[in-house]
Amino acid sequence: MKNKTNIIFIYADDLGQGMLSCYGQQHFSTPNIDRLAGEGMRFTQAYGCAFCAPSRASMMTGLHDCHRGTWTYTRGGIYNQLSAGQITLREIDELIHTTGLQAGANEVFLPQVAADSGYVTGQIGKCEWGFDTTGDRIRRHGWQYHYGYYDHARCHGFYPPFLFENGQMVEIRGNTRPDCGVHLDWESPQNSEIRQDRKGKAVYSQDIFDQKIKDFLQQHRNTPFFLYHPSQLPHGPIAIPEIHPEVKENPHLTPFEKEYASMILRLDQTVGLILEELERLGIDDRTMIVFSSDNGHEVYALQQGRTTGRQQDLNGQPFDNIKTKFYSDLGGDIFNGNGGMAGLKWSSWEGGTRIPYLVRLPGVIEPDSVSDHMLANFDFMPTLADLIGVEMPAGKDGISFLPTLLGKSQQQHDFIVYASGQGPALVTVDGWKLRYINQPENFQLYDLKADYREEDDLATDHPDL
Asked: How many DSSP H helices and E strands does the chain contain?
């Protein structure tokens, strides 16, 4: 057991490919995340889902999000009522455990695959199920240790007055904002003043998670472990204690844009801390690190007066996501966070669902390798099972990409399918993409290999496809 490969999965929140310098970001560098790419494999065609909750559920269950009746989500924000004294923790547990679909007795979740093989499993950060969860639910999924938020809505603030450790509430001294310090997510003099107001905001959540990650690694250095860190970063509203030195003097960025960049650089700092701690503990050479995101890019650095900038162009014309859609130049995203692709989070365009995906395992994965293998976030479950040598649970949708990590040829998906509020989309292994649009009902067809920006709809030209 001592020589089994450890696994650390770092899950960014709303991080588009283009926000990382290893995928082309020009305004700042992400050296620690880039190190994962430089010492491992970078995937160019990896898919999450259209937004956070289905992405997390898909990865935890090993299923795509277009099955009917597979899972449901609770209503977010219930724990705000706990802060206000309007409900008890016991009442929250009862509410969540008696509404929506509950896990079946035979359902197998991602951490259980590792736990059943003798791994210590730990989750630190944002909750892995949407939108509210409980300690009992997290234990049911297979996490033996868990620390962090139990409410996605509260994750929009970075100064929680309390978090949870193994189901028990832990107060954070100095954080007194009942709403975790959340604020409006566009720029104005008033909002800037609100962000800079430090009253009741003593401890930044990522600082807490960093310490808990270090504690977990130190405690389990001699036992195989699977550690999952779903970060809030860089999900908005923008909140960061201070602007990072790398962008502080950048003349091309506004103060608001510098704050947003600093959130990504703060996540990069966590990656560096993990790499440093693994080396210090002498377990770096037997620990695989996976870095990814739940969905594609979202724009948070909106300028003054642009309260709906994600859905409209610079002239104030709305994107209908049928004939018109977000591109960085049209929507004013100086960072080009979707890497030049169409669309943002919530949409079925490539920019909304294609995600960064990096895997590092020293001595096993060829350094600085790039793969166009098409994978989805639900492929991690079979990959984990393959890596640690256990049987994959039946009835799942994923395909292990371990052979690709080892530099071998392998089977791929014929297609990957994912949902969105406007309708599902399907991408084939040979590069065709089909979008179904609910209102009005129609299909769109794109050849991604020749048209990665999804500008040329070929549906009428290829009715057979």
From this structure: 14, 15
H-helix or E-strand spanning residue 287: strand 287-293
End-to-end Cα, the chain, rounded Å: 50
Q: Would you call 242 helix, strand, or coil by DSSP? A: coil
Q: Which residue from 281, 261, 301 is spatially nearest to 21, judged by alpha carbons? A: 261
pLDDT over threshold 70, residue 323: yes
Tell me if the pTM is above 0.70: yes
Strands (DSSP E) found in 326-441: 354-360, 369-371, 375-376, 415-418, 425-428, 432-437
Query: pLDDT tens digit string along 11-64?
Result: 999 999 999 999 999 999 999 999 999 999 999 999 999 999 999 999 999 999
Q: What is the pLDDT of residue 2?
A: 46
What is the average per-residue pLDDT within 2-18?
Answer: 92
Task: Kindly give the pairing relationship between strand 369-371 and strand 41-47.
Answer: parallel
Alpha helices for 297-376 (secondary structure H): 328-331, 350-353
Asked, as a colleague might, if the bond just before 393 is cis with ω within 30 of 0, I would say no
328 burial via Cβ count (<10 Å: 0-12, 13-18, 19+): buried
- Give Cα separations from 199 to 155, 181, 195, 196 (angstroms): 19, 10, 10, 9
